[in-house]
């Protein structure tokens, strides 16, 4: 299996327009996998409570923050998401010298969700993920089948003031703070000599393995990556293309610019084939704490044929039913051992409506162009509405409790008319 997974982007002033952080991610997964968008409210828990992650049970936190997540429907964690404190996280698959073929533990996607549920800043999310990684480890199949596809993870994390890049190899990790400009990551290590936090034994472990002589300047990517780059060649191309697209818009990066980047097929960022872009996210987070963040999700494959729909954290958010997949409880083949003996239908209502329309758009150019225009018009209207609250704040929170589901219904209406 080629290392085809994702691209994640963040832009901070002065690369953005206005005092805003723009976060974006494409989740590239198997083409038949359903990605759902779900919301979980804040919760309090007792001292001995546990949380059942994808493969293992761990200690629950005393309090979890409200989160909105875009996640493969078969697992507990998430590919990307945001929390009520405007922390955003996306993860990438990475492969290096350390074997990823460990026992079932926490998936990188579990760590994304745990970081969002437990951290109110980007730096705290780094600490949360690092602590959980050291305590429980990372491992287990990352696809809903028996192929044993496994990987380690890197994370791009942002909040209202800065971003952090966290890269892992087994239980070892390094983190770099990003305070301005832009940054993108793909399926390769990107932290070099600027390391702002690290596992206390990370360097000594590398020295003991003969990967580092203990005297030359320590470069995390050089030390922990494969000796040859053949395995990450496709990731390197996408990384360079992503960096080029960010540079092209430097100083003028907006939500719309990030959506354009995520839709770019020529670069390979909007991926097609057996691995394809199954879900996309763009977040706009003002530095002013009095202003809300707006988080856009597609909940459907191929952002070129999808609508970025806005979500804003307010009290009493309505359930995101049209983008929630069916639950199979303890009978789910992903939970029963041996796992993945069958694959149930996980399509949520929006996915069901979107699937035949995407086929029409693929097969009939004129008809597809008209559908695309209608979808873009809906998206443009919503981005315009959100621009107002990004500038002046939320005057009537109750008007936003049905924001995302209401936009989903309008999207489904476009499909019905088509």
Automatic annotation (TrEMBL):
Record InterPro entries: Peptidase_C69
Under Pfam families, the record lists:
Peptidase_C69
The region called Disordered is annotated at 322-347
Q: Name one GO biological process term.
A: proteolysis
GO terms of molecular function: cysteine-type exopeptidase activity; dipeptidase activity
Cite the Gene3D superfamilies for this sequence: Penicillin V Acylase, Chain A (3.60.60.10)
Concerning its family, UniProt says: Belongs to the peptidase C69 family. Secernin subfamily.
The protein, known as? Secernin 3
Taxonomic lineage = Eukaryota, Metazoa, Chordata, Craniata, Vertebrata
């Amino acid at each position: 299996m080629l290392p085809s997974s994702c691209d994640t982007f963040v832009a901070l002033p002065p690369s953005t327009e206005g005092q805003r952080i723009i976060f974006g991610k494409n989740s590239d997964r198997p083409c038949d996998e359903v990605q759902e968008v779900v919301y979980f409210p804040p919760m309090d828990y007792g001292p001995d409570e546990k949380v059942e992650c994808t493969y293992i049970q761990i200690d629950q936190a005393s309090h979890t923050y409200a989160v909105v997540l875009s996640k493969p429907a078969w697992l507990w964690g998430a590919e990307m998401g945001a929390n009520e404190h405007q922390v955003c996280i996306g993860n990438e698959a990475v492969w290096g010298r350390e074997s990823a073929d460990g026992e079932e533990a926490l998936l990188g996607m579990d760590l994304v969700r745990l970081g969002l549920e437990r951290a109110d800043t980007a730096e705290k999310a780094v600490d949360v993920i690092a602590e959980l990684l050291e305590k429980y480890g990372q491992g287990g199949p990352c696809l809903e089948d028996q192929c044993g596809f496994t990987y380690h993870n890197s994370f791009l994390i942002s909040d209202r003031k800065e971003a952090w890049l966290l890269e892992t190899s087994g239980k070892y990790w390094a983190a770099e703070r990003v305070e301005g400009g832009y940054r993108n990551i793909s399926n390769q290590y990107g932290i070099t000599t600027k390391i702002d936090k690290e596992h206390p034994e990370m360097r000594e472990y590398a020295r003991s393995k003969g990967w580092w002589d203990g005297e030359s300047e320590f470069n995390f990517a050089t030390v922990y990556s494969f000796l040859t780059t053949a395995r990450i060649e496709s990731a390197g191309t996408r990384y360079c293309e992503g960096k080029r697209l960010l540079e092209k818009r430097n100083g003028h990066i907006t939500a719309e610019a990030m959506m354009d980047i995520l839709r770019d097929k020529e670069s390979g960022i909007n991926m097609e084939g057996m691995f394809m872009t199954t879900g996309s996210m763009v977040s706009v987070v003002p530095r002013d704490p009095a202003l809300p963040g707006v988080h856009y999700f597609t909940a459907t494959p191929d952002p070129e044929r999808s609508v970025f729909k806005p979500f804003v954290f307010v009290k009493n958010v309505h359930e995101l039913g049209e983008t929630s997949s069916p639950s199979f409880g303890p009978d789910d083949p992903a939970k029963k051992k041996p796992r993945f003996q069958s694959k149930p239908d996980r399509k949520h209502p929006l996915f069901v409506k979107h699937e035949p329309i995407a086929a029409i758009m693929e097969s009939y150019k004129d008809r597809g162009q008209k559908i695309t225009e209608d979808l873009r018009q809906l998206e443009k209207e919503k981005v315009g509405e959100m621009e107002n609250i990004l500038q002046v704040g939320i005057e009537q929170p109750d008007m936003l409790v049905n924001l995302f589901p209401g936009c989903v219904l309008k999207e489904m209406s476009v499909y019905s008319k088509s």
